[in-house]
Amino acid sequence: MGKISKSSRKGKKAWRANISSEDIEEYFEKSTKDALSGGSLAHVPSHSLFYVDKSVDLSAKRKIEKKRDKVLHYESVLQRNAFVQPIPSSIQKKPKRKNKVVQTVEGDAQFEGKGPMDIWGDGGRQNSKPKKMQKPSIIPAVEVEPPGCSFNPPSESHQDSLAIAVADEMQKIYRKELGPDPIPLIVPGESIDEETMYFLDADDGTDDDELNEDIVQTEDMDLEKRPLKTKVVTRVELNRRTRRKEQLKEDAKAKQKKQLSKEIDSLPDIMEEIAREDEEKQKKHLRRTVVKQEKLASAPPRLGKYKYDPAPLQVLLSEEITGSLRKLKGCCTLARDRFKSLEKRGLIAPSKRSGRFVKGFFFGVSWKQKNVKCSIGHSRCCFICLQSPSYQRNYAKWLPFQNAI
After folding, report:
1. How many helices and strands (H and E) does the chain possess?
2. Comparing C-alpha atoms, which of 145, 85, 140 is closest to residue 342?
3. Which sign, positive or negative, has the C-alpha torsion 198, 199, 204, 208?
4. Angle at which helices 267-298 and 235-265 cross, to 10°
5. d(CA 304, CA 351)
6. Which one-letter DSSP state was computed for residue 90?
7. What are phi and psi of 356, to 5 degrees?
8. DSSP state, residue 67
């Protein structure tokens, strides 16, 4: 090993430079650690370092209960956090309806011990949800027919009722005649031969060729008419166009000012026109309200697929009036009258009147509808059934169906 080099000892400054400072640095490091850890253990009193354990050992049952009381990780995750706001969509609204009050056994026992209940008292009142009241109908439940519909009516009243019934029937006939014509099942026409079809196709081809030739000729003439050179726009022409644009703008502004001054002068007339329009709107609204009330008084609102079809007026003809109830001919039934009254008041939706079966036939619908049976039992009226003599003899009035096949 080599010798350690000796330092110079010529002066005091050299002696101070060679003095070691490791102990001072160790002291500062130790004091810093003690300050960070809470102080030096040498200066801490004994009662703070040591304590006497006086707790009693828990039994096995208590340990199990303590383990059960411990909150698991998934339970802590599912618990509500006060710092986390809930999602608005997950907040449930409080139900508006009240829960039914359930009578307890104690209440029943107290009730039995009190004695007889007073039916007019408030003790037995329960909290019940009020029922929704229906809107009253303008149409009365039982309508009184005019005096002309009686079994022995006066002559004038009877003629008035007959006129109303005839007017209703004629209105139905006129509405049917003036309505759109139905689509015919068969369109009359003549069959076209193959030769005629060939000539028609040939004519169509020649017309197309002529049209194509005309189009080509017009295009060639347009190309010939086009100028070969574009006209050069000079500075004078550009200045003229600029002046023209400015003049048009000034004319438009002057016209706008003139129109504005004219509108200002005609302001009283505009106010009168606005007031007149408001008055017309109010009158129109009043008319609509009156028409709506009249419509509700005569027919119910639209409830279903079908409209309400009012029942015909039950009026007797002149030869049917006998003047006695014993000789009166039976016409309408009470059940049908009540059913029409329910439909008119809007309590039930109007339905379509179905047909009726008579000896295997289904009256009231066309022969092309489903579930239509003929006298033999076929699902639809076929050509054989329509040509059979029994059909022509017994059901001659249904022969027009033969032309529809």
Report:
1. 13, 2
2. 140
3. positive
4. 70
5. 8
6. G
7. -145, 150
8. H
Kindly state the average pLDDT of the residues 254-282: 92
Q: Which residue has the tokens 């004078």?
A: 236
What is the residue type of 399?
L
| φ, ψ for residue 358, nearest 5 deg | -135, 105
Q: Does the pLDDT of residue 379 top 70, yes or no?
A: no
> Closest Cα to residue 168, out of 351, 312, 368?
312
Q: Exposed, middle or buried by CB within 10 Å (0-12, 13-18, 19+), for 350?
A: buried
Is the pLDDT at 227 greater than 70? The verdict is no
* DSSP-derived secondary structure for 248-312: HHHHHHHHHHHHHHHHHHTHHHHHHHHHHHHHHHHHHHHHHHHHHHHHHHHSPPP-SSSPP-PPP
The string of pLDDT tens digits covering residues 134-147 is 777 888 888 888 99
**Exposure of 18 by Cβ count < 10 A (0-12 exposed, 13-18 middle, 19+ buried)?**
exposed
pLDDT higher than 60, residue 24 = yes
CA-CA-CA-CA dihedral for 395, 399, 400, 403, to nearest 10: 150
Using a 10 angstrom Cβ sphere, with 0-12 exposed, 13-18 middle and 19 or more buried, the burial of residue 340 is middle
Where b means 16+ CB within 10 Å and e means fewer, 378-397 reads: eeebeeebbebeebeeebee
Distance CA(247)–CA(241), nearest Å, equals 10
